[in-house]
Amino acid sequence: MPLPTYSYITDRQDTTLSPAEEHDRLAALYSYGLLDAVRPIVLDDLTRLAARIFDTPMAIVTLVDRDRQWFAGNTGMDGKQTPRAISFCARMTEDPRPLIVPDAREDDRFRQYSNVTGAPHIRFYAGVPLVDADGFVLGAVCVLDRRPRTIGNRQIALLGDLAGQAAGHLDAIRDQSRLSTLDAEMARLLRREQDLVATVSHELRTPVTTMQGYLELLAEEEDLAPFQRMIEPIRRNGDRLVRMVDHLLAGTRPDNAPARADGLVDLAAAARAAVGACEPLAAERGVKVTLTGGENPAYVVGEAAALSQALEHVVRNAVAFSPGAKEVSVLVNGAKIEVHDEGAGIPAEELPYVFERFYRGRHAQEQAVPGMGLGLAIAWRIVNAHGGRLALESAGAGHGTRARISLPGATSG
Fold first, then answer.
1. Considering only CA atoms, which of 57, 46, 69 is closest in space to residue 159?
2. d(CA 339, CA 345)
3. Cα-flanking dihedrals φ and ψ of residue 294, to 5°?
4. Is 242 exposed, middle or buried (0-12, 13-18, 19+ CB in 10 A)?
5. How far is the first Cα of the chain from the last one, in angstroms, to the nearest whole number?
6. What is the C-alpha separation between 137 and 46, in angstroms, rounded?
7. DSSP 5
8. Pick from 150, 175, 349, 375: most CB atoms within 10 A?
9. Which helix (H) or strand (E) holds 320?
């Protein structure tokens, strides 16, 4: 007695994708990077589930290439691929509807296939197209048997659900691959940035150091005393170049590098040192810097020079953005330090970027504030390396900025 013929078989259309359509389909297929790769475990698991549900000895997730079909998930089939010429699944790339073949030996389209006349002796085939989120038919999810069989519409729908899960797994695999590629590219770019900065810094430091050496010799010459007023600006700008080089090197260190624990660091003393280091700039700009609190030492474990540098960057930034006759206040309260200025403030849309390397906001550009946009980035990295937190608050243009630094593990002296 002949097996029934399904309507979705008899009304299949003999369609062929245009070269452009096939090109786009293959481009989508290749974007998943699964051809000739190790089969994802999750897809093998899915085929085992399909074989168990349908009680078939074979189940596969296929990806249909230009001249072959690749087994991205496989249970019960030998090998890793078969020619496209004997692929049942390939039919669905041109007519993306379920393909059910109760008995391949009784079907004129498949009776001569070598996988029907020979191993694995396919008789029953049921497959649904594997369609990605962009609508491209990548292949199929199918179950196969060596004896004739029939299935109903509910089982076909279940097979379709499995195909949907397979498509979801493929999307996740591709996303993970793209993230890995992006991470590798970001790491490569970071290495290039660090190499470039190191090279530029070396090339700058060498001639500047030589210049400073000669300037010191010239400063000792009594005969050149009348020219000291010209030598001094050269020396001062040489010092500025050295600081820029140091900032470049410090600003390109990894953000997640842990701090070197020298021992206990007195934050109050570090704050006093930072304020003292910024006094020349404050005097030049006519800005008053006040320091309150910190009468009793508060110690944290960390690197003294680094923490002093971080505080200096924060205070220097406040002074640099303060107009003349304004005040910058530094408050020390245990392991918490606040630096408040009465300067231009930071627009709300710029706050998320202030700790990025080389970022210079609108006010810095409009007011031509000297710097490379590294001070706050360096301070943030140092505080973060000590397990602390640096945050900026600003009510907007003209309302000043408040920097808050908090560090863990404070002990009173």
1. 46
2. 13
3. 80, 15
4. middle
5. 98
6. 19
7. -
8. 375
9. helix 304-320
Angle, helices 304-320/375-385, rounded to nearest 10 degrees: 150
Q: Where are the alpha helices (DSSP H) in 113-252?
A: 114-117, 153-220, 228-251
**Residues present in the chain in total:** 413
Whether the CB-CB separation of 9 and 101 falls below 8 Å is answered with yes
Rounded CA-CA distance 51/69 in Å is: 19
- What are the residues whose beta carbons fall under 8 Å from the beta carbon of 196, sequence distance 6 or more? none
> Structure tokens of 34?
């699964």
Render each residue's pLDDT in the chain as its tens digit; 413 residues: 333 333 344 344 556 788 999 999 999 999 999 999 999 999 999 999 999 999 999 999 999 999 999 999 999 999 999 999 999 999 999 899 999 999 999 999 999 999 999 999 999 999 999 999 999 999 999 999 999 999 999 999 999 999 999 999 999 999 998 888 888 888 787 777 666 666 666 666 677 777 777 777 777 777 777 777 777 777 766 766 666 666 555 555 555 555 555 678 888 888 888 888 888 888 888 999 999 987 777 788 888 888 888 898 899 888 888 888 789 999 998 888 999 998 878 888 888 888 887 777 777 777 667 666 778 888 888 888 888 999 998 876 567 899 999 988 655 55
CA 103 to chain centre: 51
- What tokens appear for 263 in the block? 């021992």
Rounded Cα gap, residues 260 and 139, in angstroms: 55
The CA distances from residue 235 to 60, 244, 329, in Å, are 76, 14, 31
Closest CA to 35 of 4, 7, 62: 62
Amino acid letter, residue 133: A
3-state SS assignment for residue 69 = strand
